Amino acid sequence: MANSNSAQNTPASPELPVVNPTRRKAVKAGFATLGLAAFAAAISPLRSAAKQTSAQAFFQNHYRELSAEDKRKVIARLEAETKEKYGAEVHIADDRPIPGTKFVYAINLSVCNGNGNCVKACHEENNHDRATHQSYIRVLEMDKGSMELGNGDSEYQGVVPKDGKFYLPVQCQQCDEPPCVDVCPVKATWKEEDGIVVIDYNWCIGCRYCEAACPYHARRFNWKQPEIPAEEVNPDQSYLSNRIRPAGVVEKCTYCLHRTRRGKLPACLEACPTGARVFGNILDPESNIRWILENKRVYVLKEELGTKPAFFYYFD
């Protein structure tokens, strides 16, 4: 089978300036003091670094501080901006965790053959920039008998599977002790009740501390405004998930919460032709994922780090 794994390495770039974590409070105070025109001039360098985000977005409160009416207005603005920039009609929901749910993922490495369909499905489902072929998933081609991630090849080519190799998909592990959350200076990322680690993309300042803290290379920095043809935009979106992210922010896998919180399966799982992927609610004693964790010999990546991933691997 031909490999469609197309994840790319992050391009080299000059170091970004560190932004004061109290930026938003400061700029709001300045706005009130100086007036619109003077204050716009005063913060023009910062606004340039933020890729000239709209004024409404720049002064928007943190997601967890928004009232229901605030969210309605924010979502309406984002939908209108998407229409203006991409020529696509989209619907952005505010999908919240399902009570009594903790989502967990597992991959059967005996079955995964490295075809890369999961990478492609993630790319399309989550409205990634088309030119860079970005995805939240890397599939590493590994030598049998080795679990050293640094030796894995995410840019392998040719027919798969290859003799002497196995294939290891890696994405956000939705850790119970997420180091990415701990280092964020503005609390733009947090873990929700159903186990999914999310990001408020309108609050992220792009410092990339979370990207550096993640031991699984699971976070991506948006170096430019994503380019997606209107006909390829996935219109079924969610605020904390697959809406089109602005330039200058870090983004990550959310277990397709715009699907899974509505009772569907992640796009990567549905695209897998081998049945290697299993997803579900670990709190449900009748779920397939619960059976696997109780009956298979499962392991997690980099267990010694104490991040307590909610992403498991096993062999038959």
From TrEMBL:
InterPro entries: 4Fe4S_Fe-S-bd, 4Fe4S_Fe_S_CS, ET_IronSulfur_Cluster-Binding, TAT_signal
A Pfam family that the UniProt record links to this protein: Fer4_11
GO molecular function: 4 iron, 4 sulfur cluster binding; metal ion binding
Name of protein: Tetrathionate reductase subunit B
Keywords on record: 4Fe-4S, Iron, Iron-sulfur, Metal-binding
Domain 4Fe-4S ferredoxin-type: 195-224
CDD domains, alphabetized: PsrB
